[in-house]
Amino acid sequence: MMSLVTMMMLMLTACSSKHEGFTGKFTDQFGNKFELRKDYTASITFVGYDQPTEVTWSDGEQHDRTYATISFNGNPNYYYLRDGVLYGSESAMVNGHPAIQIEWED
Q1: Global pTM value
Q2: Cβ distance 70 to 42 under 8 Å?
């Protein structure tokens, strides 16, 4: 009985601390604002700029990748979003560093 209660508490904690999916609004540790929409369009508003830059994002052709890529400046893989952090390259994502911390809006 005790292990069942413990397991349920761990599941609730894991679910409440992780943002579900890739869509939504978040701000990175530098103050840049991102919005990823369900239609795979996105916007980035960089610090010091009033107008957002319209871009796209992807989670793979079959929508089954464990990470999303966000385009910028003509590069479809400019940013990588995985496990609640942002990366500036695929190698940084694979190695887990350096990660750019983000905060999701509710």
Answers
A1: 0.80
A2: yes
Q: pLDDT, tens digit, for every residue of 63-98? A: 999 999 999 999 999 999 999 999 999 999 999 999
d(CA 32, CA 86): 12
How many angstroms separate the CA atoms of 33 and 21, rounded? Answer: 17
Backbone angles phi, psi at 83, to 5 degrees: 55, 40
Phi, psi for 95 (deg, rounded to 5): -85, -10
Residue type, 11: M
Determine contact, residues 79/86, Cβ cutoff 8 Å.
Answer: yes
| Residue 70: Cβ within 10 Å count | 21
**Per-residue tokens: 34:** 């991102």
